[in-house]
Structure formats: C-alpha cells, structure tokens
Design a protein that fits this description.
- This protein is globular.
- Strands 1-7-6-2-5-4-3 form a seven-stranded mixed beta sheet.
- By secondary structure, the protein is an alpha/beta fold.
- Helix 1 crosses helix 2.
- It has four helices and seven strands, in the order E-H-E-H-E-E-H-H-E-E-E.
- The chain starts with a strand and ends with a strand.
- The structure holds adenosine-5'-diphosphate (ADP) and magnesium ion (MG).
- Magnesium ion binds next to helix 2.
C-alpha cells in the first residue's frame, strides 16, 4: 500500500493511524523497518507513533545512543524501542547491545531507522515502511 502525504500534519496523522492499528504478535517483538534517505521523515514518523502510544517525553533521534526505549501507556505494547542504525559499522554492534533480548519480548514494539544496515539481525518478515522525499512538504510512504 502507498500513501502520499501533502504536509507534516497529514504525515503525522498517518503515523498515528499506523501505530493504533498495530497488534502484538504472540512469539516475538513487533519489528518495523524504516527505510529512506536522510530527511525522508523516519524520525518524525517514530515521534508521531510514540505520541499516539502515550509517550510524553521528547523522542529524539538516537543516532549516538543507537537504542532508546520508552515506556508506553497503552494495552497493546509495553515498550517502544527506537533504534537508529545509521552510525553502525556492522550489525555486530547492535548484537552486542542485546538486540536478541529485545526481539524476544512480544510486548516490545521496535522501530528501526536504517534497517537495511542490520537486516541479518531482523526477523525475516519485518513490517517495512519506505519513505520518499517528494518535495519539502510531500512524502510518499510505502507500507509492506
Ligand atoms: P529522517 O529521520 O528520515 O532523516 P527526519 O524525520 O529527521 O528524517 O526529518 C528531517 C526534517 O524534515 C525535519 O526537520 C522534519 O521536520 C522534516 N519533515 C519530516 N517529515 C516531514 C513531512 N512529512 N513533511 C514535511 N516535513 C517533514
Ligand atoms: Mg532519523
């Protein structure tokens, strides 16, 4: 499925709707890979998802921390895990941050920016969101 958003507000609403439509799996964390160039809107999407799920603190890009977790206030998931793989030289670095433990818990919703850098650590069939910059205000989002 594809969606074109024409301004930031529409983009955020799309993220909220996506967030509220997610339901946990029974055997592992829900993993969503976010793909797209710098500035495409990946972090902005995560911020809107976090807000929709009750996170009140500021969600910044975890570029230097790599992994940041937020407690959620909803029934569906307990924790939102925001990962930014941009600075990783190899997926080994994320492996060392105990990614497998995060993946094992069905109560985790894990959103991974630059997911293509850590493909070998992700489940075989992660949800994928591809973001494309069309112009300053317009983004194309492909869901799979
Ligand atoms: P990424 O994480 O993909 O590098 P960001 O989410 O950090 O991108 O977005 C970079 C900049 O673009 C931010 O200043 C943000 O406000 C702006 N931006 C992101 N998404 C949109 C959008 N859908 N419409 C307009 N501006 C956006
Ligand atoms: Mg980002």
């Amino acid at each position: 499925m594809q969606k074109k958003t024409h301004n930031l507000d529409e983009f955020k609403k799309t993220a909220e709707k996506f967030a509220l439509g997610l339901t946990p799996l029974s055997d592992r964390a829900t993993v969503v890979g976010l793909y797209g160039d710098l500035g495409a809107g990946k972090t902005t999407f995560v911020q809107a998802v976090a807000k929709a799920l009750g996170v009140t603190e500021t969600v910044n890009s975890p570029t230097f921390l790599i992994v940041k977790s937020y407690k959620l206030q909803v029934k569906s998931f307990k924790t939102l895990v925001h990962i930014d793989a941009y600075r990783l030289k190899s997926s080994d670095e994320l492996r060392k941050l105990r990614f497998a433990d995060l993946l094992a818990d069905p109560r985790n919703l894990i959103l991974v920016e630059w997911a293509d850098k850590v493909t070998d650590l992700l489940p075989k069939d992660p949800r994928q969101l591809h973001f494309e910059f069309v112009d300053d205000q317009t983004r194309k989002i492909s869901f799979s």
